[in-house]
Design brief:
alpha+beta; six-stranded mixed β-sheet; about 20% helix; PmbA/TldD fold; about 475 residues
């Protein structure tokens, strides 16, 4: 029987041991109000299958640390891609430049022993050949589905990361984080026209679920259905329409248009449209927005954040009233509130900042079919592609990857080239119907902020929004 190595053994080798890490952290951060030593080991692999053959296969590992000292609003940060006492001592020289703490030392996070996902290493559990075979099987099955399939692309990604947070007060917390994802993209062609459909799924699990035929067959079916719908799509109209947003992944609009504006750093600095509005109505009655990093196996979940704070359910907007912001330790302390478990960083080479985990709107009481029947002339946005938002104004632009006209309460022709334009706070006030079908996304989201990318989850029920601007291509 093979015994799996202790995950911490990837952090502590010949150049560093746990006692030295604690001692060096206490010495380096002696002048600081807050801070930590963040140790990380990560390995990742990616497979890209295209045009009927394996095009790319990569595997890499990296390890390192980030050392941060905080006093007041000032942060000193240094990092290195080696885990040795000597490297930490060199980084400590940067920490010595920070002003001595004027206030009391920040208290450590509360301890937790919970695990929201497996410690198992997905990369080692499944042989290389089986992963390649999965991609090959999906490719063959997708091509056999429909003669109009012209191209199939399959990507399979997995990573396994061990992190440890060491604080100058002796607090130590460790987390072992798996992450997997499967993406299927299908291009169909008919009468000289080519269209694309995409579907992805994943989470903080091993590859086991992705290897199940039910999972990858559904990925093929969803991607193909979207591509075939787009093959018949007509140019999208432009103007102001009633918009019905589908459940699940369309919550990415909520993430971008509203979620970033609720992050603590923007609100502390007064640069968010939600700054200083706690207790005010910012959305229609019935709208409740939650950020929850404590949901088992979800892509955006973390047992602890990257500062050691346990994640939790944070109600940000309740029944239309703004209740709070997403906080890391620094911004929470400066705003006089408790951290919310949202201090996140892309890797050891980055300092943490307040970031979303799984952000979603709770379901309501409306029947989605009844919401559709209310729309006389509008748009049904089933799925989105890319989007962007300006934090200061809340203005956003989103492109639809699958959308339909709605005419007299019924779905009409699929449309192509539709973009939704608006601003987050205004959209929330225009919600007139909230479905009882809240769903989280399939587990594929990435969130960018300040040059850092982290996995994130989104979700929502079917939503009816009055008077949203649609940018289209129809004349």
């Amino acid at each position: 029987m093979t015994v799996a190595p202790d995950p911490r053994s990837f952090l502590y080798r010949e150049g560093l041991d746990p006692d030295a890490a604690r001692r060096l952290t206490a010495e380096a951060l002696a002048r600081a109000e807050d801070g930590e030593l963040y140790l990380q080991y990560r390995k990742a692999e990616a497979f890209g299958f295209d045009d009927g053959r394996l095009k790319t296969a990569s595997y890499d590992t990296h390890a390192g640390f980030g050392l941060r000292a905080v006093s007041g609003e000032t942060t000193a940060f240094a990092h290195a891609n080696e885990l040795t006492e000597e490297a930490i001592k060199r980084a400590a020289a940067t920490m010595a430049l920070i002003d001595p703490a004027a206030g009391p030392r920040a208290a450590p996070p509360r301890a937790t022993n919970r695990h929201l996902y497996t410690d198992a290493d997905p990369l080692d559990l499944v042989p290389f050949a089986d992963k390649v075979n999965l991609c090959q099987t999906i490719d063959a099955a997708a091509r056999a589905r429909d003669p109009r399939v012209a191209q199939v692309s399959v990507s399979l990604l997995g990573s396994w990361s061990v992190v440890e947070i060491v604080r100058p007060d002796g607090f130590v917390a460790t987390d072992v984080r798996p992450l997997v994802r499967l993406n299927v993209t299908i291009v169909v062609e008919a009468n000289g026209r080519r269209e694309t459909g995409t579907f992805g799924t994943g989470g903080r699990t091993t590859y086991e679920r992705l290897l199940e035929p039910a999972t990858w067959n559904r990925a093929i079916d969803e991607a193909l259905a979207q591509a075939l719908v787009n093959l018949d799509a007509v140019p999208a109209p432009a103007g102001e329409f009633t918009v019905l947003l589908g459940p699940g992944w369309p919550g990415v609009l909520l993430h971008e248009a509203v979620g970033h504006g609720l992050e603590g750093d923007f609100n502390r600095k007064g640069s968010s449209v939600f700054s200083g509005r706690i207790g005010e109505r910012v959305a229609a009655p019935g709208v409740t927005v939650v950020d929850d990093g404590s949901i088992h196996d979800r892509r955006g979940s973390l047992s602890i954040d990257d500062e050691g704070t346990p994640t939790q359910e944070n109600v940000l907007i309740e029944d239309g009233i703004l209740k709070g912001y997403i906080q890391d330790r620094l911004n929470a302390r400066l705003m006089g509130v408790a951290p919310t478990g949202n201090g996140r960083r892309e890797s050891f080479a980055h300092a943490p900042m307040p970031r979303m985990t799984n952000t979603f709107m709770r379901g309501g009481k409306d029947d989605p079919a009844e919401l559709l029947s209310r729309v006389k002339n509008g748009i049904f946005a089933k799925s989105f592609g890319g989007g962007s938002v300006d934090i200061v104004s809340g203005k956003f632009v989103f492109s639809c990857t699958e959308a339909y006209r709605i005419e007299d309460g019924k779905l009409g022709a699929p449309i192509k080239g539709a973009t939704l334009v608006g601003d987050g706070p205004t959209v929330l006030t225009k919600v007139t119907g909230i479905g009882n079908d809240m769903a989280l996304d399939e587990g594929v989201g990435m969130c960018g902020k300040g040059g850092q990318s982290v996995p994130a989850g989104v979700g929502q029920p079917t939503l009816l929004v009055e008077g949203l601007t649609v940018g289209g291509t129809a004349v």
